[in-house]
Specification:
This protein is of the alpha+beta class. The chain is about 45% helix and about 15% strand. It has helices at about 15-25, 45-50, 55-80, 95-120, 155-165; strands spanning about 5-10, 35, 140-145, 170-175. It has a 4-stranded antiparallel beta sheet. Helix 3 runs antiparallel to helix 4.
Length: about 180
């Protein structure tokens, strides 16, 4: 997100109109800061040009870390810290390690993905969210255009939003 606090927002009451509006706004050369919807809109990420997430790569790496930690912990416990010969069993019973390694893999992977998602999405407990319009949590969709990211005059931005089917166009300034 850029450092600007001045936005022009267009409110839409239909997701199909919103999808067409995003396409038209992007084709006209206007930079869209963000689109807010009360529910997921199928195809919106493709229309906005978002790339596929790399969260699965992070999940794999955290899972690998969990597996390595689990095996390191268990091998250290069984062979270094507390060696015991019980009934002639091996000091390193690898098949017995599989359930614990699986559980730690899943735990570290899940916790790591949650933390990566929060960091990438800029969701932090001490952060103050920018709420453009409370109706976006109920029934309206919103396109936010950052004034500093666009070289087009404000009046032209308002006109573009109105022409694409916005039921309401407002200015929003954050402190």
């Amino acid at each position: 997100m850029t450092a600007s606090n001045n936005y022009v927002v267009g409110l839409y009451d239909d997701e199909d109109v919103l999808l067409e509006a995003v396409q038209k706004v992007r084709k006209s050369g206007v930079h869209i800061e963000e689109v807010y919807t009360p529910f997921p809109v199928h195809g919106l990420d493709e229309v906005l040009g978002y790339k596929r997430t790399r969260l699965p790569v992070a999940a794999f790496l955290f899972g690998l870390l969990g597996t390595i930690l689990a095996f390191t912990m268990m091998i250290g416990m069984y062979t270094i810290d507390w060696k015991m010969n019980i009934g002639g069993k091996d000091f390193l019973p690898l098949p017995d390690f599989i359930p614990i390694a699986f559980e730690l893999t899943v735990l570290i992977s899940a916790l790591g993905m949650v933390n990566v998602f929060f960091v990438v999405s800029n969701l932090k407990p001490w952060g103050i969210p920018r709420i453009f319009d409370l109706r976006t949590t109920d029934n309206l969709h919103l396109i936010a255009l950052n004034l500093d990211a666009n070289t087009i005059p404000v009046e032209e931005l308002r006109k573009v939003l109105k022409e694409t089917g916005a039921v309401e166009v407002n200015d929003k300034t954050f402190e």
